[in-house]
Amino acid sequence: MEDKHLEFKHRLAFGATMSAFLCFTLLVYSPLSLYITGNDEMWFSFHSLLLPVTLVAATGFLIATTVLSLVKGGVHKILCCLTFGVTLGLYIQCGFFNISYGSGVLDGSQIAWKDYTTYGAIDSAMWAACIALPFALYMVFKHSWRHILMIAAAFIVIMQIGSLSLNIYQNQNTLEKLSHEVTVDGMYELSEDDNTLVFILGKMDASYYKEYKKEHAEEIGYLNGFTEYTNVLAAGSDSLVSLPSMMTGDVYKKDTKYTEFINKAWNNYNVFDVLKRSETDTRIFADDKYFGDAAVRKVDNIVNRAQDAAAYRVIGSTIYRYTLYNAMPHYLKKFFWMSLADYSSFESNNTYSSDNDSKFFSDFDKAGGFSYSDSYDRAVRIYDLQGADSPYRLTSKGEKDPDGTSLKEQVEGDFHCVLNMLQNLKDAGKYKNARIIITADCGELEYGQLPLLLYKERGYTEGYKLDPSLVSLFDLPATLASAVTDDYKDIGTGISFTDAAKQPWNRRRLFYLNTGENAESRIEAYKTNSKAIGEKDLKLINTYYINGGRIDNYKLGTELTFTEDETAVMYCKQGFGHTNGWRTIVSGPTAEMEIPIDEIPENIEDLHAYFNVLNIYEETGCVVLANGEEVFNDRLGTDIRMNGLNFLIPADVIGSDKKLDLKFIFPEIEHETEIMALTSFKIYNQ
């Protein structure tokens, strides 16, 4: 009879515990953590990662458990000790022992491995200690070493689960942003019978169109059947506020995170539920940040991101190689180096981009114009274009000029191409039965409250008229709904563009101005009850501050953003400009943040600060002071743009009040100058 510690049930329990420790650490915790911390490089969704990770981890667990359970005697003990020691080394390497190798780029050809001999020796010593530990426990605690290892393994797994859960919670909005994508599927395909087309031309101010009409009176003849509304109030002052309002009717007020707002807006009942119920094929071509997850079921060209073989190929071929690069000892890393470009090689080219009008129009020409399908009775197509937004690179003929053009040429180029698209409808005999809206997400002069709006109703083909009715771009949802139902009073304002003529002269209209810099970032709500909609005619009725005006204590390790959520902005005191949705510009000669820290662990020497840099506009010297002590002094250039702004903050500079004052000084800059664009920052325990 063999010793009870060698019986199969005991070997199974010990082997299964060691296998779970190894597989969870290497095959679950490590890849998921890497995704969360580096999701800006990942084009596939977090949810796409879960199934393959689960399958790989389960398969690995079954194989490892079988091997460790079937072997007996000394081989069983040695293999289990090695499994624990190696897994402990993996855990420590990933969580505490990796360095950036100077460049921080995942490209082994850029790493001078020979320059890290000292680190390699220290790293090897750590691994040797981890592997030796279980054997030492066996020698000292012959009767209880298995229980010690099993308890230690379970404890570390529980810690990893807690850490992973916290990371997911802290970054849930960033992860949710990656859950869907806007495809170009059906972009130029329409219905044989009934179509509604909406062209949103960026910040096409009504005055820009007025100037265009003066110089191109002959081209206005192409707009036969259109009505030009001359008293239109935008929904908001920029696309971050106006586009969601124009589509869903809901308003972003900065009292919650933008991603939470956008998800709620799309979950609410809106015009796209009406269109879906009427079996209208609806496709919206705009940046994915304007859509919540519910848009996947309401809009036909918005799909779950990378829920296909392409995602699984990239996960299988690169995510675990990335994991092994991160987990391996220093002297083995070179065998697993990779470039993050390996991810993009699998990325779909089917994603819509709203900042390239020349490509949109040239692709239309390449497609041979609109095509028509009899698989659906109605189609709605909404095209969010760059329009009058800078940078201007569109010629008056709609071609791209990489050296840049002008606002005038950009406007002429957009109308040249849109009118060509309308002519294509006419040539196909589809113009008469089409509803066509040409508008903007906002204006650009004054508060940006005066946008262009042209509207052609179905069946109209004659004349061109001006209409002074009191219209709001909040009326767009009801206008779209009116194409499929007479019952749209609960959609948006409940007033379509054509209903505006029936409204009283004192109709109440609202406008939301996205304004303010630094911690003063806010939404100002204005109203007008008259025909007058100039800047001085709008009455301020409410102000909504970022984060409700609160300044929360910062929890170490939390990534905060300078993008649409603006979670970092509450700490900005000076030099951080207006956030426009994808970045915040820092301007010199100085900028400052004041960050109250929630908790600082005891016995730590340094905190690591990381700022993700989207772009460098001025290559200049930069000095960073942390509570008056210099922590960074270097030039801002390509390396900073590629790898971010990194510096160490001695923990002892933070006093008992736990406030951290970060001052960015640009000694070479004398006047207000745009220096760099930031997207996020994080401060964490080294």
Note the topology.
Layout: H1 8-37, H2 46-70, H3 73-97, H4 117-140, H5 145-170, H6 172-177, E1 180-182, E2 189-191, E3 194-201, H7 206-215, E4 226-229, E5 232-233, H8 239-248, H9 258-267, H10 271-277, E6 281-285, H11 295-298, E7 302-304, H12 309-327, H13 330-333, H14 341-344, H15 357-366, E8 371-373, E9 378-385, H16 407-427, E10 434-439, E11 453-456, E12 464-467, E13 471-472, H17 476-481, E14 509-515, E15 522-528, E16 539-545, E17 560-561, E18 572-574, E19 584-588, E20 590-596, E21 606-616, E22 621-626, E23 629-635, H18 638-643, E24 645-650, E25 659-665, E26 673-685
Parallel strand pairs: 2-8, 3-9, 3-10, 4-12, 5-13, 6-9
Antiparallel strand pairs: 1-7, 4-11, 10-11, 14-15, 15-16, 17-26, 18-20, 19-26, 20-25, 21-24, 21-26, 22-23, 22-25
Q: Could you characterize the architecture of this molecule?
A:
With 686 residues, the chain is of the alpha+beta class. The chain folds into three domains: 4-178 and 310-342, no CATH class; 181-227 and 237-301 and 352-527, Alkaline Phosphatase, subunit A, CATH 3.40.720; 551-685, Sandwich (Jelly Rolls). It has a seven-stranded mixed β-sheet with strand order 6-9-3-10-11-4-12, with helices on one face. A hairpin with a 2-residue loop joins strand 22 and strand 23 (629-635).
